[in-house]
């Protein structure tokens, strides 16, 4: 492709937010990346421009038929002032897998990587450097063609916006979360779109999430849509169980997202010599392991929180209290190992980081 | 509620499109309706304003998490110059059911009806009066809050846009369509959101639709997501089978849309004294009825095409040719009865139309 990225600098830079109250996804930087698609020119006109509102027809197809996908990754500031990305190639691969499933034309991976790198370079000063903070990178694609009718759009925008962020779960890191096992509402099913990052999956999850919160839980653990028996994933995390010294996680079955943190955890754990099983896991088996005292730790994995220890798992009338609702050693070690790589404090033996 | 709808008249009226080449969902009228929501004011500031682009933050939640719903109904011009809506109360009820499932605050049904009526009145001249044409009405709601994080938004826009339309399937009415029975990809599953009109359902359907088109078919017939055995619905139509003089349609099982045309057809057919069965229907049973020569007619029902006769149904290696691929008498009678009511040519004994 080899398209040159145009750069239009903003002449009104915003004030940076207070590092203590960053939150997640509330503040946006001064610039954004845009790439347009139409049938004649393909993906064209890559540019970094001031962060500003989008102007779209009320008939833009994204509003009506939800043809939209996204990604999420982070840039980290190291103690010696370098900027690192974590496995951006994996996000770009997944972006194009989401494109394929949602009938959106794929984008040259090299251009996407260059766009991320250039935009992060431009916004270097926005990367917060307090412990646990980072610059969240949100690439996304929306169908912009003004047309009412169900078919793939012929016009799209690919954009990247950046948000300096603190911890995902209201300022807490590695604090155990309470999880509600949802056995009525369903997120995804094989043959559907649960394995890609399309916007509708998240809208579909809101109702059960709200119900869980009303019952005093932080997140939902989804079960499979066919039998309501097998463990799938949590809101925006994959799920892991440590049982009797070995690690279990649901296999990629076509209805759960292929998390990049999940993949990293699997590689690390194997590297430590601990057996990892990717398989179909019934919630019943988890409960039995719990009853037998073999369920040592449960944790979620995702870009936002990295590792999120689970302190309580509620399934029907059963309440499983894990590790005295404290953060387990294994979760902690994983969190520290991964974040040390992300922040350039530990050797990156897998070659996961990319310096900007 | 009793909110007054403000009206700002456009000072640049567009030229009306040629009636011969209306198509579907390509042209939009001069005005649109907008209603805003925030937590403090609730739904507020109803207004009819010039049709113009929306200005939204790139972080508006609809782009990322797909919290969006819509409706579709039509206004018809009668021969004596009156304007009729068809069962708008049903669309408004369904709109609020979609809101509920998608965690969007509900809207006062009276205000929605008033908005539709007022907007159609303002755009009266846009209602085409050629046979088979109408003014398509598209109410929709999108999450506009600028925030990255999965939770229900705290800001929304409810809008109504209007499009003068011809026939949905490229200019043809009552021409039999060819339908591909999809047994790999899945649209919806009980516990999911298939029974409401949320944008993500349509994005999720594109891939199978594209596959069907590549194989020479017009539309997909979805099977259930649990067993891939039971008939659900077509792209944007419910499906009916006439077998041995009786009518069968899948029951509302939580994963198919409760079509307003479906409901009208059921009422009409019952009124004619023909038995109607709403039940779980396996594709195998349909094929057996076909083999036995008992499958008399198959047709889809929906606002866009009203009645869409099916000329061919393809299931795996089986090709079912229906009624010699011609429009059946029953489909035709239904089409004529319903459109005659819609266009004010026949007595409206069910009280379905509402004059604007
Ligand atoms: C549904 C879902 N599952 C899992 C994940 C975790 O994926 P990753 O580790 O790539 O952030 C995410 C977040 O991206 C997600 O949205
Ligand atoms: C998925 C789906 N099924 C069925 C229908 C038919 O519904 P109605 O008759 O209300 O137009 C539609 C169209 O609205 C639809 O989108």
TrEMBL record, chains A, B:
The modification N6-(pyridoxal phosphate)lysine is found at residue 197. It catalyses: L-valine + 2-oxoglutarate = 3-methyl-2-oxobutanoate + L-glutamate; L-isoleucine + 2-oxoglutarate = (S)-3-methyl-2-oxopentanoate + L-glutamate; L-leucine + 2-oxoglutarate = 4-methyl-2-oxopentanoate + L-glutamate. One of its GO terms (biological process) is L-leucine biosynthetic process. It comes from the Bacteria. Its cofactor is pyridoxal 5'-phosphate. Keywords: Amino-acid biosynthesis, Aminotransferase, Branched-chain amino acid biosynthesis, Pyridoxal phosphate, Transferase. Transmembrane segments: none annotated. Pathway: Amino-acid biosynthesis; L-isoleucine biosynthesis; L-isoleucine from 2-oxobutanoate: step 4/4; Amino-acid biosynthesis; L-leucine biosynthesis; L-leucine from 3-methyl-2-oxobutanoate: step 4/4; Amino-acid biosynthesis; L-valine biosynthesis; L-valine from pyruvate: step 4/4. Belongs to the class-IV pyridoxal-phosphate-dependent aminotransferase family. NCBIfam families: ilvE_II, PRK13357.1. This is Branched-chain-amino-acid aminotransferase. It comes from Aeribacillus pallidus.
């Amino acid at each position: 492709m080899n398209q040159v990225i145009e750069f239009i600098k903003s002449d009104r830079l915003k004030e940076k937010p207070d590092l203590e109250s960053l939150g997640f996804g509330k503040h946006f930087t001064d610039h954004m990346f845009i790439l347009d698609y139409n049938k004649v020119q393909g993906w064209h006109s890559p540019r970094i421009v001031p962060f500003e509102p989008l102007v779209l027809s009320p008939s833009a197809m994204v509003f009506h038929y939800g043809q939209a996908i996204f990604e999420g990754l982070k840039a980290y500031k190291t103690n010696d002032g370098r900027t690192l990305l974590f496995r951006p190639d994996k996000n770009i691969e997944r972006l194009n897998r989401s494109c394929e499933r949602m009938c959106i034309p794929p984008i040259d991976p090299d251009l996407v990587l260059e766009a991320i790198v250039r935009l992060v370079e431009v916004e270097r000063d926005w990367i917060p450097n307090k412990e646990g903070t980072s610059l969240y990178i949100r690439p996304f694609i929306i169908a912009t063609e003004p047309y009412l009718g169900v078919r793939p759009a012929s016009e799209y925008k690919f954009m990247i916006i950046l948000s300096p962020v603190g911890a995902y779960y209201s300022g807490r890191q590695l604090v155990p979360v309470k999880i509600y096992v949802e056995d009525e509402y369903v997120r995804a099913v094989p043959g559907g779109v649960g394995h890609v990052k399309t916007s509708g999956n998240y809208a579909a999850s809101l109702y059960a999430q709200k119900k869980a919160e009303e019952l005093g839980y932080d997140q939902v653990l989804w079960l499979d849509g066919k039998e309501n028996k097998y463990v799938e994933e949590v809101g925006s995390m994959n799920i892991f169980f440590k049982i009797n010294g070995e690690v279990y996680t649901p296999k990629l079955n076509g209805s759960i997202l292929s998390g990049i943190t999940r993949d990293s955890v699997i590689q690390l754990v194997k590297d430590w010599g601990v057996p990892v099983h990717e398989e179909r896991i019934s919630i019943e088996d988890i409960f039995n392991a719990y009853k037998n005292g073999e369920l040592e730790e449960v944790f979620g994995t995702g870009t936002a929180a990295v590792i999120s220890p689970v302190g309580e798992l509620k399934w029907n009338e059963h309440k499983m209290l894990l590790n005295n609702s404290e953060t387990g050693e294994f979760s902690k070690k994983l969190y520290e190992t991964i974040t040390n790589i992300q922040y350039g404090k530990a050797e990156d033996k897998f070659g996961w980081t990319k310096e900007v």
